[in-house]
Amino acid sequence: MIRLIYVSLLVGLTDLSDAEGGLIPRKNILKGVEQLVVVVTNGWDSCEGKLMCFDREGRKAWKPKWDKAVPVMLGSKGLAWGRGVLVETGKKIKKEGDGCTPAGIFKIGKIYGESESLPIKSEYPYHRITKLDAWVDDPKNPFYNKHVRIGSNEKEPIWFQSQRMRLGDPAYKWLIEIRHNSDPPKSGYGSAIFFHVKRGPGRKTSGCTAMKLIDLERIISFLNKDMNPHYVLLPNSEYKRKRKKMNFPDFSY
Fold it and tell me: Domain range holding 199?
């Protein structure tokens, strides 16, 4: 029997089923969250946005960590609602292969990369990728949207090579997991969503949030697991509409 070793990070206690059932008041979704990475866009069809990191202590006001926001590239088809700690129904929903970046509020998971360790001044849960690591994006696979690591002396599953995490790609020097459709995964609703390095000026993504390497490494240095970091991605109009009720930082496109 093949033994699979799963590597994942669950941050916080919010349950998707609770969110879908409306049991968690929206004003409490960010309770216990003291770090936010926020991206706002001009609209649902936008493939570009701007990003800022914020932190706070307890119930104090959010404070920006940088002097100015940085540009990011998003999915080629804009945004669609994702499955995170905030779940919206009856609207455009993120699906596998649709070219949309999932919008909403998401826990931030582990960081993945090929280097032996994270950049200097970074202390955050990290997994070094090797040829033994896969991230499953096949909705028919029982390990859909999960990181899978096989043992070094074990036979590969027949699907493994097609799902193996890419090595030697500068765009994937660092991958910060955005826990969309993760708790638990729902087949066909999108997989493998990360922050990563953008491929070039104006290059859109398949659904991830991409930026310059220097900006990605600034996020890595910012993240603190003990502060329960989350990611908020919304069009500007939706962000403004939800800001007071959900206690978002003051930020606009």
Answer: 4-21+33-55+66-245
